[in-house]
Specification:
single chain, about 240 residues, mainly alpha, two-stranded antiparallel ribbon, 12 helices, 2 strands
């Protein structure tokens, strides 16, 4: 039998170190690459590998491992407080609005100060949202945030040209002078229209709003639907 990874030897005391800090942005690809994704991160944190393997040996069923993983994922987020989830929903709403405004901004006609103001709002709301997810237990929320982090990391060189730096903890910092001197073509690629960074982050922000609201409903037993059966707006 092939020898597997000893999860006891991994640093599970801070499973978010890879995602939220402890490495430089230049080493982001290697720090992310040793795990297949957030599923591994969350499963190592919860000890689901050991639970699943024990379940496999006890049940001797081929679906035991998948069942154990599924149960762990579906049960995540129950320890997230309503306050932290409400704060996330608020911060993600700000990110949704700021990224939407940035996506719709006419880079050619906008002044340097107007562009800088929109980008600064985007950076601020992104950082607030990122910091809000650091201690979350919800699998879906952390996964969505990871996708946003990875999207920014994949465009790091272009972000740098616009004066936006990815810090060691994956928050963003803005050099307004560098932003104002950046080529319009770079700014359009980053911020304008469908497929841009602003558009991608806007989609992730929308997902986070819904995920936070859903987790609140799950944890508190509240219904996201009105008495008439219509879905209540999360925005």
């Amino acid at each position: 039998m092939a020898q597997g990874i000893d999860v006891n030897s991994l640093n599970v005391n801070n499973p978010y170190a890879t995602l939220f800090g402890g490495t430089s942005s230049n080493s982001s690809s290697s720090s992310m690459g040793w795990m297949s994704g957030i599923s591994d991160l969350k499963m190592i944190q919860s000890g689901v590998y050991k639970k699943a393997m024990r379940s496999v040996y006890e049940k001797e069923g081929k679906d035991a491992f998948s069942e154990a993983v599924s149960n762990t994922i579906s049960g995540s987020g129950k320890s997230d407080s309503e306050k932290s989830l409400s704060n996330l929903k608020s911060n993600a709403t700000n990110l949704y609005n700021s990224s939407k405004e940035l996506r719709g901004l006419n880079i050619d006609s906008a002044s340097d100060d107007e562009i800088a103001k929109k980008v600064e709002s985007f950076v601020k709301s992104y950082n607030s949202t990122l910091n809000n997810t650091k201690d979350m237990d919800s699998y879906s929320i952390v996964q969505t945030q990871l996708w946003a982090v990875e999207k920014l990391q994949s465009s790091e060189s272009m972000l740098n040209k616009a004066g936006i730096r990815i810090n060691n903890d994956n928050t963003l910092s803005l050099d307004k002078d560098a932003l104002k001197s950046a080529d319009k073509s770079t700014l359009k690629t980053l911020f304008s229209g469908s497929g841009s960074i602003a558009d991608n982050i806007n989609q992730k922000a929308s997902a986070l709003i819904n995920q936070a609201a859903n987790q609140i409903a799950t944890n508190t037993g509240r219904n996201l639907y009105s008495a008439s059966g219509s879905f209540q707006s999360l925005f």
